[in-house]
Amino acid sequence: MAFDPYATRSTLRNVLRAVANYDKEIGYTQGMNFVAASLLHGLARSINLSPYDDPDEVLGTTAFWIMVYINFELNWRELYRDGMPKLLGLVHAFSVKLKRDLPRVYGLLKHYKVTRHLSKFDFSA
């Protein structure tokens, strides 16, 4: 099945509304659209549909349940909370790994004050 951006736009909107309704605490936040659109794009290229299947229904339902799995089972919904605790944790883990495994790159980032632009994140670990 070819990816159809026009047909998928309404499917994307439906997936995002369903996710927001499923998780009332988080609702919809900026960035969810990139995850859902990527899922729809990948699914459109990989799911074999029968002639009787409604592509938007199959893709939308599958993308919705994958997002529920990602958000709840893998705990990525923390990425969308106020203060972005998941993102802060990931950036901290990345900076620790970067400093340990690629100290020259880490030193260059500090030297050119790249970290100053990311002042919310802890690159001093």
Order of helices and strands: HHHHH
Helix content: 55-70%
Number of helices: 5
Gross geometry: elongated
Could you tell me the number of beta strands? 0
Overall mean pLDDT: 85
The whole-angstrom Rg is: 19 Å
Query: Spans with pLDDT under 50 lasting ≥5 residues?
Result: none
| β-sheet strand percentage | under 5%
Computed structural class: mainly alpha
Major sheet summary line: none
Ends: how far apart?
47 Å
What does this structure look like?
- This protein has 125 residues and is an all-alpha fold.
- Helix content is 62%, strand content 0%.
- The chain contains five helices and no strands.
- It has helices at 5-22, 32-46, 55-73, 85-101, 103-111.
- Helix 2 (32-46) crosses helix 3 (55-73).
- The longest helix is centred in the middle third of the chain and has 19 residues, at 55-73.
- The protein is elongated and about 60 Å long.
